[in-house]
Amino acid sequence: MLCRQGLRGAVSPSGDGAAPDVTSTSGAGGAGAADGPDVTSKRAFLSALTASAPTVFPFLCEILEKHFQAAQQLEAAGTSGAAGGGAAGASGAATTPAQRAEAVAAHVAALSAALGALATWVEWVPMRRLKDSPVVGACSFFIRMGTPSLRMQALDILRQITWRKRSNESAADYGALMDAVGGGLLQATQALGLLLRPADPLPPAMVRELGHGGAQCDFGSRLLEVVEGLGEGHFRCLAATPPGASTRDAFLAQLLTLTRHPYLRLSCGTLMLWQQLLREAAPQHALADVTTVAGQMRSQGSPGAGKAGGAGGPSGGYALPVETVSELMRVVCGALPRVVPSADPGVNNVPDWADSHQEYKEVVVAFRSQAKGVLRFSAALAPEQSLQVAATCLSTALSAAAAAPPGASAAPASASGGPPSATSQLEAAVLVLTAVLQPLCDMAAGGLGISTGGSGQVQGSHAAVAAAAAAAAPSSPAAQAAAAGLVAGLADLLQAVLRVRLCDPRVMILHAEAIEAFGRFLALRPDLVAPAVSACLEVMALLPLEAPGQLPPPARQSPEWRAGFEARLAMANVLLGLARAAPSALVPHLSALVTQIAAMWERGLLREGERVLLWEGLLAASAAGPPVLQAQLVKLIFEPIAQQWASPEWQATVASPQAFISSYMPLTPSAGGGGPGPGGAGAAGPSGAAAGGSGSGYELGSRERRWTLYHQVTLLERAIRRTTPLEAARPAASTSGAAGGTPSLLSPSTSSNATSAAAVAAAAGGAAAAPSPDHPFAAHLEWCLPPVARIIACVHALADPRVRPLLGPLALVNELDPLERASRLGEDRDAVKAQEAAEPRCVAGGNLADARYFVRGVRECGYMVLSLAAAHCGAALWRSEQLAALLPAAVAGGAASLGDNVVRLLERHVLLVWAQRCPASRAAAWMVPLCSTFLPHMHQRLTSGWAAQASPNPAVEGAPVPGLTVPGLAGSGPGRPAGGAGAASASGAGGGGAGAAAAKSDGTTDEVVRDVLLRELTREHLLFLVALATRRPIDPATDPAGAAAAAAAGGGGLASAGSGGLSPRVSANGGPLPAASMAGMQECTLEVILRYSPATAQAGLVTGVTGLCWPDGDAAGKAVNFCRSLLGLAQSGHSELEGVVVGDVVRAAISSLGHVSTVMVQTQVLELLRSVLATYLAPRHPQSGLLRAVLAGLPGITPQVLDNFTTAFFGAHGDKEQRQLIKQLLAAVAGDEVRKLLAAVSRLSSSTGVSAVPEPKHRDRGPIPDITPQDMGLPHLFDLPDVL
Description:
By secondary structure, this protein is mainly α. It contains 54 helices and four strands. It has a two-stranded antiparallel sheet with strand order 1-2. The chain has a two-stranded antiparallel ribbon with strand order 3-4. The two termini are about 70 Å apart.
């Protein structure tokens, strides 16, 4: 009875001890009335509960002890056991097994109830009382001696305690309680045999019981939760004395025991805690003062940093035993071979603990990611030990790979838990090497005062700053000695890796990754650069070529050939990785490497792709040298290409699409094939197209030409990307170039055979004599970009309706390949790749599908050349009249016939970059011709596409709404977008054509693909329009005249143009735009187009404004940004845009608020409307009459309603209140559905019973007043038709 009263007083019916249900009892604390106690009675009740803790806790523990002893006696008594009564209230003898079982069940129920009561109390009771109570000891006892259910309840109590924060508790009480929890838990786990020393093997029973499906699997998971809570929040509270036998040492041993368990879900759960403990630990080695990476990562803090500041340990950093860190690294290294990609058992062979292959991948990917973090932090705490562990792991893996039989890497992995394969071991060793080398190199560099800064593409800014600070600060002799030892050990490890020779393709790829991991180390030992590169070239020779490297690959490629091909590419790619990590170390060896690579190419020992990667590596390394060095290297590499592209024979191949097809993709009938294909006689006949519709019976010729052209364009793109000079090399480069001390890369044999065209020689010579301050490749643009533009024009023309009939079977080059379709349909890309694995695609293949692969590769590489030229060589590009006359027409000329997917790529990679970087002074030459063709076409394409998607019924969401559409509304004022009936008829025609095409579709997947492509293209085009309408600062590099003019004017001219007339209510944050922020701004491209081609600007304006109404939320958000730019331009002096903003933008915004698809951008649209109304609705504004006319077009809006709304709008307090008024006005003129949409994002005020004129005393700090439709003179909401 006493037990029941204690439980009833401690636990509410809801189980919440902190806020018990006092309405159901009249006990302590003075419960209030049935409708709930007031604050005083609640406080009194909680005070009584707190005061009763010293009595209730011992009582509950006594209940636990007596009932447990009674249950034990019953179990031991056999047939005559007697159960003790006492406080348990159970007396008498149990003479039969049924009676004994019933008595034991009663005792266990009492134990469970008492533990449940404790679990509720420990959530809120003061830590001082909890510390002085026997609760922790009782939980430790039941973990050791209780049944499985009682063990879980005891762990739940400890978990509740570890989840608590210190709050206002004293540091002593907090630290003592958490240390007691740790001590009690670890005593229990040690008694259960779950706390092992690192040298102790895992008992088989423990592996079995805690693993998946084991009897104690849930217990292991709950134990891990308690350990995680204790370590993440309270590790510093654990006692650290005596050393080697403290609570903290036992905790680390317990955590390491769980990490050693083979069950991945259990061991992976410990790695996140290990990362936190290692990150917050203080290094104790000689390099502690110059550690850069560990210090940087530790300074970032962690979620548990603020929770462990108690008095149980030092408030600052703590030290972790080096032995524990070393053992942890060995454990992690031993587990990695089971989680690397090569150990994946496959979709149909997943382990028992995973329900699907996707679940298996999630666990192993998380394990790999967290293991890399553990190794990285461990290396910062124990550098010598981490180097030793990595060396041992790599040595063992290399020995296993060398002893493995040929072809062993291709064998599938097993899920049965057998020994890992040699490939998995090597892959794990490479992962370990990659994780530990970065902190080791940074520490060694800091100790020696050397900067390991690379190209900036490998390191982040924090690491670069830390390395520079370490290099500037002198280090102690001990640190220098430790750093020298690290460098010596790393050098030995690298030399051991370079001595290995492995012929298996898969293993060779891993070997290449191992060498590349030492890239940052080469900045410390530049003398090892030459051996590293030589080793890569020698290993490539272990897979000899079956034909001279200048020839294309076989027309039919086997998986074995493909594996060797990829292995050689991986080894060639090492040079690029080393150059990006340590470019300065490679600069002295450039001349020798150029000679060696050229000789290997002449002897046919390199393929085209391998040579491209090697040249790219040298170009990346030359960025650390003077510009004259880069100019020489660029001339040497591209002189043969320039000669070929300047020849009449080559130019004839890209003179027309027909010439391009016959030169690069001729079709020849195979055995049993049909008639001649494109490029031959009769190719244009209808029978030819019909015969080759499926692609059977034809062989794709000109394989060598396709192979060469693809790699030439690829090399051009890589060269422009990689030859940007490093900032650190610019001052030294100019000095050395002026002194003439840079050695020439042209050997006598090379220079004697160099006979380039006059234009190429002049360009290269000019680059060498006077290096461009912008980009080393800038002087070569006028000979390389025109051929690229002609190639792109030929590829675009393949989609022209006049050329399509000539393609025959090659018509598939204009279609999506299976992988592109799968990505749009959300299908498994890996499954599609697996289907093509038997016969992979190749730009030089003989199948018709290879033609599509070639066209796509050349087109996308060409796009990137034009994009990078604008991004890196902008000054030289924009000022070239020759390129301005050629490139815009070539790029945008054939866009009308391209598919949506191609136009999207064109806009993303080329047009968007041009719009963002073209200076206003050159926009008339570049962007106006381009946009005059492109913008009207895109308006037609997008309006037709969305018209086809929409229902002809205007009531359906997404369809055009009469009276609210943007185009063709009379009275919009100057500069209104054109459209009218012509646009409507064009839209209808486009919709009919699309509907006919959809009717002929084979299935709904085609409609899904079309819808996805249309949405992607719409978003991309609106981004392009936003870039056109955005003003940017003047760049002196690309527009020196404009920068000089702005400087002479003191920034006043452009500043006034950019900020004059801007309303303080226009900016998105509700604040005014400062005039200083607009100083030095140039006019946007749209302003230039408005001046030179108003009709072109009209098309862009219509498209951008109509984007608010298309049923795509992402596109509507970008359209909002475009309209906000228009608002800013209209206020900065472009009065011709005011009619568009006041008329069409307002109508489109109101229409957008009635669409379900745009509800996620409702806030942005309302802010746009608020900005327009705040600017133009003021009674004295010249455009207020036009805006009032637009609003008066809404049903039910009278002049009196507008007057009331205007008064309330300009009397509102802040932007939020104004947006609320707009929502209420629109909800009043629309129907219930629109009202629901307006209330979906934020609360919509009630429409009845609220005063529109609040009392003055509440207007300063009171709530936002609610304006009802009735207050504005409108009828009730539901009395009006649904018009939105």
